[in-house]
Amino acid sequence: MLSAKSLFQEILDNDESFRLFCSIAASGEAQGGWENARIAALVPASERDLAPKITRHGADEDKHGRIFNALMKKRGLEPVPVPPETDYTMLLEQNGIGLAHDKLGRDDPLTVQDIVTYLSHSRVTEQRASEEMEMLRKYFGDHPDLGRAVKMISNDEDNHLAYCHEELLRFAYAGHGRAIQRTLRECALAEIRIYRDVSLAVMAHMGRILGWSKPKAAVLAFGIHAVYWYERLGGWRRMVSLKMPERRNALGGPAAAAPEFA
After folding, report:
1. 140 and 150 in contact (C-beta within 8 Å)?
2. Is the pTM of this model over 0.90?
3. Measured between alpha carbons, how far is residue 51 from residues 109, 132, 145, 188 in Å?
4. Average pLDDT, integer, range 128-147
5. Rounded to an integer, what distance in angstroms lies between the CA atom of residue 192 and that of residue 174?
6. Residue 75 has what pLDDT?
7. What is the DSSP code (8-state) at residue 246?
8. In this structure, is the dihedral angle defined by the CA atoms of residues 49, 37, 159 and 224, taken in order, positive or negative?
9. pLDDT higher at 143 or 124
């Protein structure tokens, strides 16, 4: 029976598909680490207290990239180039979601509105990351090779999401509420489209590696489109709501060290 668990198990059991999966994940996390590091360095003077949390966010992302690379190394695998159509982080940036890399590459201080944009973008993408890692934790949290990594990354993503909620609410109370809601909506609607396109591209590559039949590939593509239409017709709203999280000051300390994979 075709299920999310059986699908991921098939990908994990094959060296080539596992290598592609981890390479895509590691690349996205590394990009996220760079973006957060640059944002932390360019935070406006009025928001300098936020810089350590942004730095922690970036350190977590870098750590996740190292974890995925370590998982490959443990199986004697080397990373492969990430196909551009599967590069979720870069496609978001190219579609104007978040802060442009050319802006982050300069040394000009960011504005408060830039920080609001960054947090809104992160709130949307961390929702996706938290949900995906929760699914992997459910299916593979007890896996002998992947369990520790999945649990750590899942906990980090939950922390990132809590941080975004808390900081965006702070900015909303300071008078940025309308800008936040407008930016969240724009980000969410763009993200669900890009997520659909990236999912289709990743599944196409996996299908070629694993030799999926045309009917199986068609069923998976139908499922991806179905998720998109659910989100387009209203599911996107879960990405734009704000509530004070149970985890307060979730990024208030240093990043935890990555686990060792012998």
Report:
1. yes
2. yes
3. 12, 27, 34, 25
4. 93
5. 29
6. 94
7. S
8. positive
9. 124
Of 172, 166, 212, the closest CA to residue 10 belongs to: 212
- Three-state DSSP at 118 gives helix
Task: Give Cβ neighbours of residue 75 (< 8 Å, ≥ 6 apart).
Answer: 15, 18
Listed residue (119, 111, 191, 132) closest to 162, CA to CA: 119
pLDDT tens-digit series, residues 118-137: 999 999 999 999 999 999 99
Tokens 């969410």 belong to which residue? 188
Report which of 111, 93, 60 is spatially closest to residue 187, judged by C-alpha positions: 93
- pLDDT tens for residues 54-85? 999 999 999 999 999 999 999 999 999 999 99
pLDDT at 215: 95
What DSSP assignment string belongs to 205-217? HHHHHHT--HHHH
Q: Is the pLDDT of residue 24 over 70?
A: yes
Question: What's the gap between Cα 25 and its chain centre?
Answer: 9
Residue 183 CA to residue 179 CA, distance in Å, equals 6
E strands along the chain, which residues?
none
